Amino acid sequence: METGIDAGMDWFAARAALDWQLELGADEAIGEAPVDRFAIEAGAQAARSALVAAPAPGRMAPAPEADPVQDAEAAARGAATLDQLRDAMAAFDHCDLKRGARNLVFCDGVPGARVMIVGEAPGRDEDRQGKPFVGRAGQLLDRMLGAIGLSRAESVYITNVLPWRPPQNRDPKPTEIAMMLPFLRRHIALADPDLLVIVGNISCNALLGRTGITRLRGQWTEAEGRPAIPMFHPAYLLRQPRMKRETWADLLSLSAKLKALP
Ligand code: URA
User: Fold this and answer.
1) d(CA 41, CA 258)
2) How far, in Å, from the CA of 133 to the mean position of ligand 1?
3) Which positions fall inside the Uracil-DNA glycosylase-like domain (predicted)?
4) What residues have CB less than 8 Å from 141, skipping those under 6 apart?
5) Do residues 124 and 166 lie in contact, with contact meaning Cβ atoms separated by under 8 Å?
6) Is the CB of 160 under 6 A from ligand 1?
């Protein structure tokens, strides 16, 4: 049977295609190449015999259910550098988003810069290039930063709450944010910026535990032990250009804070 599932499909599209076939009544998977099930069964039998012959494991307790947040905390704690943190995130297997993503989107800009921007999650362009904020919203972000003399080439470090693209750009789930938050916290600690720019509601929720960006924006607060300013997400500004005026005020406030901080 022609499955319609091709090798270039992402995980979520393949899963949707499979569900669709089940709904149509498919109850057996038949591949195009013949499979010698006798040979497979002989191999399985040998493996079972080896297991039976193995020494009794004693009173082995069943493996405890893994807790994704605890695992993330341990993995993040173990990272002593940004490179190690990237590796730890790449090895983290609890988040389903990873299976549908092309790339881990870790950071862009200058590690150690005074300004660290925290966005929400990669979109299609970011997923393809493996870098945050490279699509239309990212280009607007670059122009916003340029207006106060900042740039990712020289003076800004950028990351996201989530390193993998959610399918169809849906909002991240609370469980996904909770399990990736220990990595974000460690990311901020290792990058050690003077201040944080938190863009969008999802990032505010993750780092401040608050939403309502229209009220929060432009109000200096503290996150991860350093000054932080929430701002409108550039994707929102693309849809609502009228709000650029407020963002200009926030950018001036950011510029003044940088001058005022030691
Ligand atoms: N939106 C984000 O929040 N982050 C990106 O990297 C791209 C778009």
Assistant:
1) 68
2) 5
3) 106-252
4) 117, 133, 199, 234
5) no
6) yes
- DSSP 3-state of 230: strand
| 230 C-beta closer than 6 A to ligand 1 | no
Share of the chain above pLDDT 90, in %: 74
Mean pLDDT to the nearest integer, 172-181: 98
Window from 103-107, 167-171, 236-240 with minimum mean pLDDT: 167-171
Distance CA 107, CA 110 (A): 9
pTM: 0.79
Structure token digits, residue 185: 């916290």
Find tokens 């899963």 and name the residue: 15
Which residue range(s) make up the domain with 99? 68-260
**Tokens standing for 89?**
């995130």
Q: Where are the alpha helices (DSSP H) in 78-200?
A: 82-91, 97-100, 124-129, 136-147, 174-191
Q: Is residue 32 part of a domain?
A: no
Instruction: Please tell me the distance from the alpha carbon of residue 110 to that of residue 158, in angstroms, as a whole number.
Output: 8
Q: Is residue 240 part of a domain?
A: yes
In a domain, 37, yes or no: no
CA of 158 relative to ligand 1 center, distance in Å: 10
Atom of ligand 1 nearest to the CA of 203: 3
CATH number at residue 77: 3.40.470.10
